[in-house]
Structures are given as structure tokens and as C-alpha cells.
Design brief:
The chain is mostly helical and 172 residues long. This is Regulator of G-protein signaling 13.
């Protein structure tokens, strides 16, 4: 792990965000903008629909040991775009095995009716077969983890770094 300016050690989760701030060939130090980061605090939807929001949020969820929620949500977003019936069946079974079936390695917290509906439809999955489970997981993240994310070290230090960088560039 790296060190912060005051000599404190950076947590591995903060450190893995460093790749978003490496200088590019033009000397730009940040890929994620202060404007984008500030939008994240406006609503959970804004966080999830920006370019880097889901990446940073997933990093935070790893610290809570609940990153299966966003992984499932992102897998569903990809799944809904699959046109091929054969590929859809294959991916649906993988999602089911990883997140839905009892004792799945990354089992998500959904209610019995949602789980049972997926079990009934998994043999011939439609593009919308995970929609209810995805909605439940989205609400869990929005109500539970998102408020904690906004107060987290990850979000606060990221915002501070971008504000400091922005002020530095104005004074040059």
C-alpha cells in the first residue's frame, strides 16, 4: 500500500483506485472528474449511470464484503443485452449458479418468491427473468450501502483529492 501525504498508510482499497489517477501521455492526472464524483452524492441512480461510479462503488462494497450485489446487478445489465438464445441460456445458468441457487458462492439476498420465479424459468430464460431480483438488489444497495458509501473514506478522500487537484490547477 502507498502512503498519504501525512505519512499514513493507504488502505489497499484506496490504493487500487490509484490507477484511475495515473497521468496519461498528455500529463492529465485524472480520468474521473470532480464533476462526476460530486454527481454521485445527488442520487444512487447518478452513481450507477456514470462511467466510473460503479467501479468506485464496487471497490467500496468490497470493504463491506457485499460486492456480490453490484456484481450481480452488472451481470444482469450485460445479460439483458444478449440477443442469442443459446448464449442467453448459458449466461443465465452461470448467473443462477453464482448468485441465485441456495449456497451459491456469491448468493444474493432476495425473497423466496423472486428466487422461486427464477428457478421456474431458468430452463428457458427470457431477457427479463432476473429483473425482479435485480430490482431487489438495487434497492438493497440504494437504501443500505449507498448512504454509507457517501460517508466512506474511499468517497471522501477521492472527492478531497479531486477538489485539491482542481484548486491547484486554478492557482498555477
Amino acid at each position: 500500500a502507498g502512503r498519504l501525504e501525512n505519512g499514513q498508510r493507504m488502505s489497499p482499497n484506496i490504493c487500487c483506485l490509484c490507477k484511475l489517477f495515473r497521468e496519461d501521455e498528455n500529463g492529465n492526472t485524472s480520468k474521473v472528474s470532480l464533476e462526476e464524483v460530486l454527481q454521485w452524492s445527488q442520487s444512487f441512480e447518478k452513481l450507477m449511470t456514470t462511467k466510473y461510479g460503479p467501479i468506485i462503488y464496487k471497490t467500496y462494497l468490497k470493504t463491506e464484503y457485499s460486492d456480490e450485489n453490484i456484481e450481480f446487478w452488472l451481470a444482469c445489465e450485460t445479460y439483458k443485452k444478449i440477443e442469442s438464445r443459446r448464449k442467453r441460456i448459458s449466461v443465465a445458468r452461470r448467473i443462477f449458479k453464482n448468485y441465485i441457487q441456495p449456497q451459491a458462492p456469491n448468493e444474493i439476498n432476495i425473497d423466496s418468491p423472486a428466487r422461486e420465479a427464477i428457478i421456474r424459468n431458468i430452463q428457458e430464460p427470457t431477457q427479463s427473468c432476473f429483473d425482479e431480483a435485480q430490482r431487489i438488489v438495487y434497492l438493497h444497495m440504494e437504501r443500505d450501502s449507498y448512504p454509507r458509501f457517501l460517508g466512506s473514506e474511499i468517497y471522501q478522500k477521492l472527492k478531497l483529492k479531486l477538489q485539491t487537484d482542481s484548486n491547484d490547477s486554478l492557482t498555477r
